[in-house]
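Two folds, back to back.
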Amino acid sequence: MARGWLGILAGLGLAGLLFLIFLLSGFNKAKDNSPGQAGAVATTTASSQVGDEYLALGDSVAFGVGASSPEQLGYPGVFYDQYLKKVRPEIVTYKNFALPGETIASFSNRSKSQSQLDRTLEELKTTRKAGHKVSLISLTIGGNDLLAARPKSQIEKTAVLEQLDNNFQAILAQLGPRLAESKTELIVTTYYNPYGGLVGSDDVTWIKRFNEIIQKRATEYNFKVADFFEPVLGHEKNLTWIERGDIHPNVAGHAALANALWQATGYPSPATTS
């Protein structure tokens, strides 16, 4: 049998042998481009944008207060489970450092415990040393500062906004270099108005002014911004607990905020990667 094959090859000559090799090469390429292989390549390309870890920072809204299960049904948990996990289910992990009652000042400076800012800088350093990557951080902060300023005069509110701006810039200035070093993306969220009312009312005016500060400073640092204002506007009774005197989002509200955060990422839709 072996002699028979040798005889055939000898009879083909050099030109025939090269033609046979060409045919076999085309067959192997066809196998490599099978639907299963192509799907795997497409999924890997899409998922490579997400990375190893998602970290949520901020106040009670970022913590998930208002949801029946804050860790799972708060907006960061929904964002992780319903969006990130579907894009890269085996690699993406989720941590939430948010603290109810957190202000912009306490975010970066706590006298009796480690601040969120310090924990975040440490997390970036630790994961990098371990060969991993915090690819995405979301930050929702400033709501408690706005609530505290709500009964104050116009002059006092202006002073509060100026201080918020200064503190916010200080946070971004400390985060910026470390995020660039770790190639970590930051998405800052604006704030919604739980009280409703028409545009031009006092609450809307001050929240919109604060959101303008967030947008301006985030743009200066080339960070993305997720709009939490528009999805809630006109739907306050359906998306928050305001009728019970609670400004926090309900389950539907947290889901709406999660979707707004996803829209800001620019990542492909989970439906296109399945």
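---
second:
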Amino acid sequence: MANYDDVVNFALRRGIFFPSSEIYANAPAGFYEFGPYGASIRRKLIELWRKELVKKTGMFEIYGAQVMPEGVFKSSGHLDSFNDPVTQCAKCNSIHRVDKLLEALTKNHYPEAMSNEQFTKELRAHNAKCPKCKGELSDVKKFNMMVKIDVGVAGKQSCYLRPETCQSIFVDFQRIMKTMRLKLPKGIAQVGRSFRNEISPRQSLLRQVEFSQMEAEVFFDPAKIDEIDGFDSIADYGLRLCRIGKDAETVKVKDAISKKVVSGKLIGYFMAQTQKFFESCGISVEKMRFREVAKDERPFYSKETWDFEVETSVGWLELVANNYRTDYDLKGHAEGSKQDLYYLDPQTNKKFIPHVWEISIGVDRTFYTILEHSLILEKRGQDERAVLKIPNALAPLHVAVFPLLSNKPELLKMAKEVYAGLNELYDAFYDESGSIGKRYARMDEVGVPYCITIDFDSLTNNDVTIRDRDSGKQERIKTASIKDLLHELIVGRKKL
């Protein structure tokens, strides 16, 4: 597995991802863009999420606005509680996030919920100085990370860029409930951009100002938390759980329920589906865990939190926030909007505000983690060869077509015909420049699982050579069978 520097260098070299507006020296930190290969992987990651989590569990998907009025965030509590502890250097005026500064200094963990006074006391106790210039640091204060904008010609309508995608789902709940005849339990999902005024954006995709989330909010009756279709299919599935003060262990979902490790079958079911999704992304189960979050570390709205984390070269990286948000959000928006957000159970005529189980996946962090776990650096003498062994479902291209180096028109004609036929069904690429070895290496590096070569024998025998990225194995096949074989290979039904 590669490390963080390997991944960033690889991404820049191949244009996978890179800083936004990088040709300008004054471009702000915390904004990243994706090149052609990166955009393709990212798009396929989202489609895999739709297939493995949204569609498989019968969720509705919406698309919400990024700009929302101030009242939304008053009701949600973000204007009062969405804060980071900060300190400022008296010498160079740099602002630092205190909990991260102390963690780097002491190697201990500091909950964000600590008071300003407690944080200040810790700064003084450890004689913390500015990391940039060693200047004196101010007392700690809270900084709200919301990004405010003014809407309208007069600029008098105060709005904010959403700091998380879930608020769109909550304010849309009433409309979705009525128009889709929503029956609980039911998930509502969306993928989109969010914005946070990070104090010190760093580590490329891992901490940004503008980022993407794949969000799902599952609405349910708390009295029926143990009633969920499909539970039997995952009852014996093993969850990697890391309880407070304990090492990670594999626990069957049904045992986690019976031992009250998690609150109910519905939560166990969606935790299993979340872990299964990351398995489909090529992450080894041994490298993942659901870490139980203590009360003083949980978000202010959460009754129960399990952070889904994956081990990387920069430590255990949180990719998913799994929160039992109870009825906090709908109740707050009902009060703030003066609208009825109750749900009427059609079977019992019971009227109540649903509870919510949240599955909030960071797209960009997941993207980075998949690259790190897929990028293999192989030594070949004095040279180093990079191979991106990414799952077929996420590969930026399915297949590349190469004619042998030749000026023979018939050879190029056949190669282009093969390419055109494949490009109708798959993400295909055509390349006739450089040696076959170099072309293979270029495709291996960006994760293309299969390459097809047309040579002089192809003209006579009407066949081609297909090569597997991971094994290097090659097989001769008839041209007429390429499309069907490629499908079998891509979906995993066959191997070369």
